[in-house]
Amino acid sequence: MEISHELFVGFSKSFGLFYLIALSVGITLYAFWPSLGGRFDKAAKSILDDEDGPCR
Amino acid sequence: MKTFLKPLLKPFAAFFEGHAKAHYRLERHSLGLTAAIIVAAGIGGFIEIAPLFTIDETVEAAPDMRLYTPLEQAGRDIYIREGCYACHSQMIRALRDEVERYGPYSLAAESQYDHPMLWGSKRTGPDLARLGEKYSDDWHVRHLVDPRALVPESVMPHYAFLLDAGLDVESLPDRLAALRAVGVPYSDEMIASASADAIGQALPDTDRADGVFDRYGEETAVRLFDGSADRVSEMDALVAYLQVLGRLTDLPAQIQPVPEG
Amino acid sequence: MISSLTQAERGAAMLITLAGMVAGLAMAAAGQGDPMGAHGWIVLLFFALFFGLLARAAYGSDELEDRSLAYYDDPTKVGILLSLAWAVIAMGMGVWVAAQLAWPDLRFDAAWSGFGRLRPVHTSGVIFGFGGNALIATSFHIMQRTSRARMPGQVAPWFVLFGFNLFCLIAASGYLMGVTQSKEYAEPEWYADIWLVVVWVVYFTLYIRTLARRREPHIYVANWYYLAFILVVAVLHIVNNLAVPASWTGAKSYSAFSGVQDAMTQWWYGHNAVAFFLTSGFLGMLYYFLPKRAERPIYSYRLSILSFWGITFFYIWAGSHHLHYTALPHWVQTLGMTFSVMLLVPSWASAGNALMTLNGAWHKVRDDATLRFMMVAAVFYGLSTFEGSFMAIRPVNGLSHYTEWTIGHVHAGAMGWVALITFGSIYALVPGLWRRETMYSWKAVEWHFWIALAGTVIYVFAMWNSGIIQGLMWRTYGESGTLRYSFTDSLVAMHPYYVARAFGGLLFVTGAIIGAWNVVMTIRHVPRQVPERDHPTTSETMEPALPAAE
């Protein structure tokens, strides 16, 4: 197969779309997966009490 | 809502759980997170950029297009050095008012030898894509020396010091060779005689001037750009460059496109 | 500061400075008569300064403290001071160039003082000098705290910080000498670019090594943003700066790309510099300092993950909206436009997330100017991302492109978002970092806030107005069907706005000067406070960083 501009454009237009959809679905699932909620809450709270070492 | 979805999703629970766990593992290891960022940004970026590696296939053929002469290229380097691109674009968009104000809209072919392109992003001053031969050399020199003497409202900085600065012609063969390395089809002869050609183009009626015609065509402007035959100044180079803007090929005028908007 | 280095670290640091001096000398010798030679001298002096400091303390005591008990904050402190210094210099430069447009005679007669040479000093100084130093300093702070671990070494952070500042110094001094590639926000020439790659690799390694030492199971989301900033900026920087030097003894180089390909590469870089330098890293700041200052966890951690991936993925495609109606193929323009509009979703998710975090703590916003800096930054972030998506729509861009509107948009982001979140973070950070009870003057913080906000609003409104007027004048037709206004007419119409813009900028830099003064006075005059705890607290979750199964 010849590597032409049309080929690249076609690939970008088709594969790019599916890649976008797949990535969006994957991320959304991850972010909203119920069993991870507790860990996320802990992470969010973790920064509120992380002080502090002496500064020399 | 939840009670309704639960039985529906149950068969897939194991899959989802695995998917989420995999994700979690991914970002609890910093290198996994790194890889994920590269994949998300990199593949997206690559897909967009990939067609551009072959974009020269889409650039119109402009068989009559000539290269910048060494003097013009030196002028272009001064244009870059002084940051002219910060206020002047060189890209006429395909919009009716731009075509009427500045001329036929810019084609990709016109900047195919521009390393880098100087399309610009801001017009504090007007577009310069078709500036060449719109004004006389003398106008340009006087305008660069004192912009407000010719255009009282202008806010352009003056560039009088270019008149007194001798042009560095010795580095021109190196410059042309570097340009050839990135794809500009300069011949060995053009590179070898770059310094002489730069001087010749600013000193008409000399042997060196004939060399410029031989190598870059009879239409090349060979003139005393800064009005002085004493030496080749940076002003010579910059004006030579400004006078060739939009004149390397006739293609835009031939196509005479119908603009949008 | 040097006294806390071990003998081995001092030795390593001296070797690095020696190598730097040799490199500087080589550049100065090779580049005689070229700006590169001058840069060689700058490099030489820069490293000689540090060599001298190290040599003076070479035989000092070798401290044997237990480093694992403390975070390493010295580089953060220096980074913050450098950031403030760059802010004052670069914003001051911005006022000067703005004034040159209103009163062109302020250009004076020197070759180096023209608008074209000073402008990149302003842009690079603000983006890299002010923003970059703030990012490096805060990232050092945040990565240690969220990991509850100290940085692995004591040489690498200094190398990153000072190496980056050397890059900024070469860049800024180069512009004044006319050394530029003309690629906006990537102007420095090849040797500076190569040096930045070295610095960046060390930065990335340092970050990853710190994260690897963490005692927290989860990598807090602020680190994701910083990592994306480091990684993607590296890729962008390398690709866009590919060039062939005209000679190895001179500064001049020619880009590997030309014409339409170069335009696309440049704006792929240019827009993602906005995304990953001016957005991603500063969102990392926001996600750490805003919850911390408000003493409330981020409203939705899930949303922050979602918007992180959204921003990382969408931004990369958006660059071509800088090239609407140009010779760039039509479909690429449409692609850029579509993704730019979609970008609004993750951007507003971030801004909304920040504001929702403050919901229930509005009394703190009212009383605490530091928190207010962050709140207003989030608002401006929301505003300018909306504006950005809007301006990326092709017909809107037809009007706005090339005009002052673009400048207004950029400054809504740079002043309203980037600078305000940075100042807020600095005020949040300084007292704790230097072990002071409070800032020297809370009134000065309050003054800084209102002056900065007024300056931003004046600036942005002046540029919005002038940009739209300019765009409309360029396309207005008279009754006879010809263009009504000459270019000069539109330029004359800009004058009052240029004056207002310079005034707005002057207010903003005044605020920055007050801020810098306040920080210095805090360090010098506010009494030291003994910390309640002097060791990193352990993770609340009590989970090991790596589960036993792995």
Automatic annotation (TrEMBL), chain A:
Give the transmembrane ranges.
15-33
Which domain of life does the protein's organism represent? Answer: Bacteria
Q: Which InterPro entries match?
A: Cbb3-typ_cyt_oxidase_comp
Q: Cite a single Pfam family from the UniProt record.
A: FixQ
Instruction: Tell me the classification of the organism that encodes this protein.
Output: Bacteria, Pseudomonadati, Pseudomonadota, Alphaproteobacteria, Rhodobacterales
The protein, known as: Cytochrome c oxidase subunit CcoQ
Q: Which UniProt keywords apply?
A: Membrane, Transmembrane, Transmembrane helix
Automatic annotation (TrEMBL), chain B:
Q: Which Gene3D superfamilies match?
A: Cytochrome c-like domain (1.10.760.10)
Q: Which SUPFAM superfamilies match?
A: Cytochrome c
- Tell me the ranges covered by the Cytochrome c domain, including all copies: 70-246
Q: Which InterPro entries match?
A: Cyt_c-like_dom, Cyt_c-like_dom_sf, Cyt_c_oxidase_monohaem-su/FixO
Output this protein's name.
Cytochrome c oxidase subunit CcoO
Superkingdom of the source species:
Bacteria
Gene Ontology molecular function, alphabetical = electron transfer activity; heme binding; metal ion binding
Key words of the record:
Heme, Iron, Membrane, Metal-binding, Transmembrane, Transmembrane helix
* The organism of origin for this protein: Limimaricola cinnabarinus LL-001
Spans traversing the lipid bilayer: 31-53
From TrEMBL, chain C:
Q: Where is this region: Disordered?
A: 531-550
- What EC numbers are recorded for this enzyme? 7.1.1.9
Listed under GO biological process in this entry are: electron transport coupled proton transport; oxidative phosphorylation; respiratory electron transport chain
Q: Mind listing the UniProt keywords for this protein, alphabetically?
A: Cell membrane, Copper, Electron transport, Heme, Iron, Membrane, Metal-binding, Respiratory chain, Translocase, Transmembrane, Transmembrane helix, Transport
Q: How does it sit in the membrane?
A: Multi-pass membrane protein
Localization per record: Cell membrane
Q: Which PROSITE patterns match?
A: COX1, COX1_CUB
Asked whether the UniProt record includes Phosphoprotein among its keywords, one would answer: no
| Cofactor(s) for this UniProt protein | heme b; Cu(2+); heme
Q: What is this protein called?
A: cytochrome-c oxidase
